[in-house]
Structures are given as structure tokens and as C-alpha cells.
Amino acid sequence: MSDPLYLAAAVAVMALVTAGLRFAPFLLLGGRRTPRLVVYLGKVFPSATVGMLVVYGLKGISFSAAGGFVPQLLAGAVVVISYVWKRNSLVSIVGGTAVYMVLVQTVF
């Protein structure tokens, strides 16, 4: 399973597929104008993805004990507040993750 040739081939295949997916729109569309559907999906997908992540992240909350919901809700609040304040996704995600981990590991 850890044969170096096998691992190199697997990495090469993954790199080719990734590059192919990145270059596909340019190869398929050429110099033409971007279709309206693609522009619409580019506007809608980020919000839909964030919504799905929120639902997925909060679906397992248990309100039977404080440790089951307080860390998640506080971390979520930190993410929202820090994003509104700084408008920086990376700062918001790292801050929310740090708050969640500190709460889970030390408080609850």
C-alpha cells in the first residue's frame, strides 16, 4: 500500500484531474461570454454552501445539557460577530474554531 511508485502515480492522477477541472471552463468556453446560468450559479452557490454548512454543523445539537449546545452557539456567534466586524472569513473561521475548542476542552 505504501509503494513509492503507487503513491507517486496516485498523486500524479489527482494533480491531473484537479488541473483538468480547473482548466475545463476555459477550454470549453474559450473566449466566449460566460453563460448567464454560470454567472447566476456563481452568485448563489456561496450563500447556499454556507447555509448547508451551518445546518450540518448545528444538526447534532442536544439541548439536554449545556455542554451540548453552548459551545456550538457561542462559537457560531463569534464567527458571525467577527465577520460583521472585520469582514474577513479566515479570521472568523479561526476565531470561531478557537473559541469552540477552548470551550469544549476546558469549560464543558
Mind explaining what this structure looks like?
The chain has 108 residues and is mainly alpha-helical. The protein has a domain at 33-107. It has helices spanning 4-29, 36-58, 70-86, 89-107. The mean pLDDT is 90.
Question: Quick recap of the structure?
Answer:
By secondary structure, the protein is mainly α. It contains 4 helices and no strands. It has helices spanning 4-29, 36-58, 70-86, 89-107.
Attribute tags:
108 residues, mainly alpha, 79% helix
What's the arrangement of secondary structure elements?
Elements: H1 4-29, H2 36-58, H3 70-86, H4 89-107
Radius of gyration, in Å, reads 21 Å
Total helix count? 4
Oligomer: single chain
Low-pLDDT runs of 5+ residues are none
Largest β sheet strand count, sense and barrel closure? none
What is the β-strand count?
Answer: 0
Termini gap: 40 Å
Structural class: mainly alpha
Q: Shape, please?
A: extended
- Kindly estimate the percentage of residues that lie in beta strands according to DSSP: under 5%
The H-and-E topology, N to C, reads as HHHH
**Mean residue pLDDT:** 90
Level of helix content? over 70%
